[in-house]
Amino acid sequence: MNSSIPCLLQSHPSVFPALISILRYRPPIPSRFFNNLRHRHTFKCLCTLPPSQSNEPPLPSSSPSPSPLKKRIVSGIQPTGSVHLGNYLGAIKNWIPLQDVYETLFFIVDLHAITLPYDVQELSKATRATAAIYLACGVDVAKASVFVQSHVRAHVELMWLLSSATPIGWLNRMIQFKEKSRKMGDENVGVALLTYPVLMASDILLYQSDLVPVGEDQKQHLELTRELAGRLNFLYGGRKWKKMGGRGGAIFKVPEPLIPPSGARVMSLTDGLSKMSKSAPSDQSRINLLDPKDVVANKIKRCKTDSYPGMEFGNPDRPECNNLLTIYQLVSGKTKEEVSQECQDMNWGTFKTLLADSIIDHLHPIQVRYEEIMSDSAYLDRILVEGATKASSIADATLNNVYQAMGFLKR
């Protein structure tokens, strides 16, 4: 306290009541503050403790300082169709360096695979094959957890809890739902196609994910996840959760997108304006990771090109040229400048041969490793069990917090 205040009170005791009133005054908080809080998701996770205020001496300098916790990343691919070059260059290949920097969980999203008609006999086979491809592409189980989505039941439980707080209008605005339902017709579209973004949110929020690798076409779904995290934090977190016996604060972290600088959107071989897709009717539109080398060479030989001379990046009138140059850059490991200089004077025939050979060389060790993994079913089963066990321990902790915050009777 300022040393002049006691002297002031002695000489002018009449100011004492006024001073007390000033010290006790707290300005009212306007209601718009709470509206802003709701819309801007300003809850913060109480993940760190304040600095110690004790009088204990500091640790000796020889004691190792605790290492900071790694941020967590989750991602996955559906086991429908064949994993293709777009899946690999746009997602899986980018996972590999992330393992050394982040805590990573990569899963096979088999629950998402049933939102559209699917082959029941092939689902389990495709699930195993996708897991093997993860490992063959370089996912290291010493650094990352690999598991099957349906093997962690908390995904479905949290989805139901999130659904209770998801406005239907948020789901109706999803672009992919509009596109797919328009193609199939209302009579052939299941409710799961509308609600699967809530399951995607569950996939992410269960693991308190800091970052989510996404392509440009998935940013809308991640934004829905962020909105749901903020909505649940507002409705049930903070003091409300503390009153229910919890720790208070935010229930969920609000994740951020992690978009790779290149290769996040590999386009079709038959249409440079459409994304390479498993669901495209023509297999000619994509290079599957397990395609034999003669099939790869034939697909590249027949892929769509243009009549312009030379090769160049970035010309909006040449989407196929830009796409094929990008694929070559990614599989060759060269920079954009190196590829531009190497290929600028090539004709299409010369470039296609170069591209096909580069893809074949890049995929060969992946295909060899895949065959080794698939031949040892016990090894693959053990990896998936261990991954699901680790994932469940994280997911169950989050799910228990949500049940508690939402007022459910403890099990």
UniProtKB/TrEMBL annotation:
Gene Ontology BP, a term: tryptophanyl-tRNA aminoacylation
Main location: mitochondrion
A single GO cellular-component term on record: mitochondrion
Record's subcellular location: Mitochondrion
Keyword Ligase: yes
InterPro entries: aa-tRNA-synth_I_CS, aa-tRNA-synth_Ic, Rossmann-like_a/b/a_fold, Trp-tRNA-ligase, Trp-tRNA-ligase_bac-type, Trp-tRNA_synthetase
Keyword annotations: Aminoacyl-tRNA synthetase, ATP-binding, Ligase, Nucleotide-binding, Protein biosynthesis
Major enzyme class: ligase
Gene Ontology MF terms: ATP binding; tryptophan-tRNA ligase activity
The reaction(s) this protein catalyses: tRNA(Trp) + L-tryptophan + ATP = L-tryptophyl-tRNA(Trp) + AMP + diphosphate + H(+)
EC number: 6.1.1.2
Family as reported in the entry's similarity comment: Belongs to the class-I aminoacyl-tRNA synthetase family.
Protein name: tryptophan--tRNA ligase
Organism, scientific name: Stephania japonica
